[in-house]
Amino acid sequence: GAGVSQSPSNKVTEKGKDVELRCDPISGHTALYWYRQSLGQGLEFLIYFQGNSAPDKSGLPSDRFSAERTGGSVSTLTIQRTQQEDSAVYLCASSLDPPLRGAGEQYFGPGTRLTVT
Amino acid sequence: DAKTTQPPSMDCAEGRAANLPCNHSTISGNEYVYWYRQIHSQGPQYIIHGLKNNETNEMASLIITEDRKSSTLILPHATLRDTAVYYCIAPNYNQGGKLIFGQGTELSVKP
What we know:
The structure holds two protein chains of two kinds.
Chain A: E1 5-7, E2 10-13, E3 19-24, E4 31-37, E5 43-50, E6 53-56, E7 65-69, E8 75-79, E9 88-95, E10 107-108, E11 112-116
Parallel strand pairs in A: 2-11
Antiparallel strand pairs in A: 1-3, 3-8, 4-5, 4-9, 5-6, 7-8, 9-10, 9-11
Chain B: E1 9-13, E2 18-23, E3 33-38, E4 45-50, E5 55-56, E6 61-64, E7 70-75, E8 84-89, E9 105-110
Parallel strand pairs in B: 1-9
Antiparallel strand pairs in B: 2-7, 3-4, 3-8, 5-6, 6-7, 8-9
């Protein structure tokens, strides 16, 4: 079946502009996660959705970052007033449930490469 | 998440077994060990997970020590396509399942 899809695959934007990144999870997956990976760095957790609610936003680096999920499916990560340090690959993952005792591995999309000039 | 420690890099000859170690000495009794890998320019890919018994699937085997303080991921016949960064993770389920990725082990499979 179809995996996690993300769009756009690449985005170049000027400093100060707003950007929206989209994630389409695997159908039926109730849990959705956003991560980012800066050049040469490990993956950093940003936010977690269970259904349409976000019980864990602890990884969002600043109030310029926000995310929403509608209909328990598609999610959008919005970065306002982008800065050069926001340049990274933004990855989305989904799972059937929040992993409970090994029941829910996460499936990752291909990512969106964001470059802020 | 339990802290995990992995060697930063390893080499393996094509066709030979790749054995990737991970230390997780602070793991709790109900925390599973997960392994993911990330091939260059792709999203991470789930490989395998286990609690205390050894596990095997079509991709790999996972050996967990009896005290659960360490584990080894085994790729029985490594191919060039297995060249990737391998991550060992022990997520804390009180944190909603988010994965905390360390630096992982960069495995290079050489012909």
